[in-house]
Amino acid sequence: MQMAPLMNSNTSTLVLHPSSQAEEPKKENMLSIFDSNMIQKQVNIPKEFIWPSIDLVNTTQEELKEPLIDLSIMKAGDEKAIASAAELVRKACLNHGFFQVINHGVEQDLINDAYCEVDSIFKQPISKKLSAKRVAGGISGYSGAHADRYSSKLPWKETFSFVYNHHQNSSNPQIVNYFKSVLGEEFQNTGLVYEKYCEAMNELALVIMELLAISLGIDRLHYRRFFQDGDSIMRCNYYPPCKSSGLTFGTGPHSDPTSLTILHQDQVGGLQVFANHKWLSVRPRSDALVINIGDTFMALSNGRYKSCLHRALVNKYRVRKSLVFFVCPREDKVVKPLESLLSKNEARKYPDFTWASLFEFTQKHYRADVATLQSFFQWHSSSNLL
Ligand SMILES: O=C(O)CCC(=O)C(=O)O
Predict the structure, then answer these.
(1) Which biological process, per GO, is one annotated for this protein (predicted)?
(2) Which of 135, 160, 192, 374 is deepest in the core (most CB within 10 A)?
(3) Number of domains comprising the chain
(4) Which atom, in ligand 1's list, is nearest to the CA of 239?
């Protein structure tokens, strides 16, 4: 049965009901309601949230042994330590693309403030959150379980996303303005906190880009220059507890179509990576940020560095939160590997593309999974758009 989302403005809840396009007859009593406050009290979760058993297997507690990189070496300019760190990063990226960084320069107080603002957003009544809901095909705004886009295998979470242009300046605080425009004047401080958080993420992203360039043996400033005027995306994830946590996911298995992801997860844990043929947990560290390679960086490295399948479990008893910064190039930048990266006679793995076109594909035509990039090129060649 296909399900389509509908807003019920009287009850201020998001109602899922059988789609009018569905071929099966409509059953009037088949209503399920998404409201994170209500839904977590239900004994049986709505079937739209139940994932196929093939996806649910393998919920191990085994941990990923990703490297922990101390980024203070970058500021200190300790070239020997940088070379060793780059080697660890290279090994991780050739295998699964995940590593963690400490001494990253983002103040703990700022991270704590960003989590406080997650609470202020998601504790709002559903009617307020829906007033900031993401528009079809767009990225910014509130989303409840992505039910505006999908009708099955829904993620057990609420998200709030917004864009950060690397070239924005303090006389035009875009994030503050965005928060005020969709949630009201009282969200000025929320906007200010995220403006600062994104600036810190952006600075950090450029440092990591340097380390990645060193690890690939190319001009160390190449990716810093490529990404310095990018259009990145910030997302706050709020995962309510779920009584049937074994039947659903907070975030289903997917690879990130973006370039680099910088994630902070709270102490509840739940992030897992599919590496070495199994699902492995990424242990939360409050002082660390989790970094992973996305599809676009995989293409920039001609497939050397892996954009790996990952997912987030939900907790039976506790709310889980995460802060995710998706680093992206400016949308019209052509994504292609540097000539000097290709060894003699090495074939190009992917055709050139712009981030704007891949972004549009994932926003309007495709639900990101492990095969996003391949599907994107197939779609483009069949529609002659590349
Ligand atoms: O919350 C997490 O740990 C993972 C989130 C994630 O993968 C995403 O938002 O794309």
Answers:
(1) gibberellin biosynthetic process
(2) 160
(3) 1
(4) 1
